[in-house]
Amino acid sequence: MLIKLKFVKNKQLKRFLEHGIYVAILLLLIPAFFYFEICIVLPAVVDLWSFTHFVHLTYATFLLVNVIGNMIYGMFTNTSIKGKFLNSFEKDNWTLCSVCECLRPPRAWHCNTCNICILKRDHHCTFFACCVGYFNHRYFILFTFYIFVSMLYSFYYNVKFLSQFVTWNHGLVILKFIFPLASFVADFSEESMYVFLVVINVIVGIFTGFLFFYHFNNLLKGRVVPEACNTKDFIHDKGWKNNIREVFGARWYLTWVSPFITSQLPGNGIEFGVQGKEE
Question: Considering 117, 125, 130, 131, which one is annotated as catalytic?
Fold first, then answer.
């Protein structure tokens, strides 16, 4: 999900492009945006080296660590059937994967890009360059959440920053917000560049906000994306509290603080017991 490279047919090339997008985001886009907010915007809206300035530096660093940390953990956490002992004898609802040539457990689907079956597969994430499944679902949810929070947080100060020097110019400034890239190319100036970055700020905020609320709503109902349309006789909804523990683990209340906090998941991604709902 997020970005789908449907036009690329070759699997190896698609994986290469996805990893290229991943590296670009990790090494270029996020540090560049962080630099813009901390080194350009923040000194213009608060007193330099004041208590307020240090508070904002601390908060921004906290957001940055969570965005990058959850992104890295999400990519390198194996959530496939590789290395898992799949004892499928006399078990119901197991299906045959003709590509992996094995029986796969319920809620596992084959990913054509990863070329392997994924445990409790939610979707393929280009930003992670891998699938979101049972063991890295937590990191995807928190990755989108912290980007959304970062965009909201920065948008407020970006507006205050722009208001200091953006001129009305008989309404022409509106065109810069409607066509930010064109105005940036036609009028290469600091004002056009800052307007362009703020527009990107808004677009990313809306996009990640939608992703977070959509996937978190599925999470509360105990569903993954392929199951989202299944509203009748759904047996995996254990109540919102248990559904949260299913994704964030026993220490779910701490996982929001840092991606480095370990939180044991209640299952193994292979067997899903049906429990009574906890309201």
Answer: 125
